[in-house]
TrEMBL record:
Source species of the chain: Bailinhaonella thermotolerans
Identification of the protein by name: LLM class flavin-dependent oxidoreductase
Gene Ontology MF annotations: alkanesulfonate monooxygenase activity
Record keyword Glycoprotein present: no
Stretches that traverse the bilayer: none
Domain Luciferase-like: 18-228
Alphabetical GO biological process terms: alkanesulfonate catabolic process
Keywords: Flavoprotein, FMN, Monooxygenase, Oxidoreductase
Length: 296
């Protein structure tokens, strides 16, 4: 485990608070050169706009930034329709959509919204089935049939095709969902709040072993890290809580020593200030340092 050699990218975690200037913030991220905007998907949160209404608005309001659900709430999103929506957004935006996918959490809230309550095993199996359903809907075969424990296709028709090969990135933490990531997904989306750096080697190792067992290269799997913290003017106060120089040091280390290739800022404090500082002070420095480390 170490540097997988993938291109380094940077994103912004846009919390979908209805009272916030969501589209203005998305346009700012686009102008600042941020690569990705991730939006969490919790439909039962009363203060949030719906993620699948916000994402097309972001794509329509921006020119180059890519958008993904960070991560989609599978128990409340039927996978065949999810696949159709994802392909449509990708096609309409010129290839600017990726699909983060989660097995579900907060089961009381999901059940309150009419969704199923699943055990960890059921949630994992449903996630595996959903990946298969989604890939089939994105394919060219007609009259699709699939009979699973949780999902089925009964002569379904695919289409439209996405504008580019959409990545399926799993928000996974347990060993069996990590194995599923290595075996069947295109990316992994952990958060620093529950997967701090000291846990990353062990978690990455599970993904890598499963990838190799499936005949895949570990480097084929993107590692998208939601990084929670604050860029400050004063001295450092712990991991990802300090000046831009500290952030550059820590993110560079996460790339070249821990294998993470995409960093999505989940900022605390004034969002515009944090986003600007990240894009203008941290991102170019990390790009330069990672390039120098790799050249050496």
């Amino acid at each position: 485990m170490g540097d997988y050699g993938r291109d380094i990218e940077f994103g912004y975690f846009l919390v979908p608070n209805a009272a916030d200037p969501l589209l203005a913030t998305a346009r700012l991220a686009d102008r600042l050169g941020i690569d990705l905007i991730g939006v969490q998907d919790h439909p039962y949160q009363r203060r949030y706009v719906d993620t699948w209404a916000l994402m097309p608005m972001i794509l329509a309001a921006t020119e180059r930034v890519r958008v993904f659900p960070d991560v989609a709430n599978l128990p409340l999103r039927q996978p065949a329709v999810l696949a159709k929506t994802a392909a449509s957004l990708d096609l309409l935006s010129g290839g600017r959509f990726e699909l983060g996918l989660g097995a579900g959490a907060f089961w009381d809230a999901i059940e309150a919204y009419g969704g199923p309550r699943r055990t960890p095993g059921e949630a994992r199996r449903a996630l595996a089935e959903a990946i298969e359903v989604i890939r089939r809907i994105w394919g060219a075969e007609r009259g699709l049939r699939f009979e699973g424990e949780h999902y089925r296709l009964a002569g379904a028709q695919p289409g439209p095709r996405p504008a580019h090969p959409i990545g399926i990135w799993l928000g996974a933490g347990g060993p069996k969902t990590l194995e599923l990531t290595g075996r069947a997904a295109d990316g992994w989306v952990p958060s620093s709040s529950w997967a701090p750096p000291e846990r990353l080697p062990g978690l990455n190792a599970v993904i890598d072993e499963a990838a190799r067992a499936a005949g895949r290269e570990p480097a084929d799997i993107r590692r998208v890290y939601n990084v929670n913290g604050t860029i400050t003017d004063g001295p450092g106060g712990g991991f990802l809580n300090g000046p831009a120089e500290q952030w550059a040091d820590e993110l560079t280390d996460l790339a070249v020593a821990y294998g993470m290739d995409t960093f999505v800022l989940w900022a605390e404090g004034d969002q515009e200030t944090q986003l600007r500082r990240f894009a203008e002070e941290v991102v170019p420095e990390v790009r330069a340092r990672v390039a120098a480390e790799r050249a050496a």
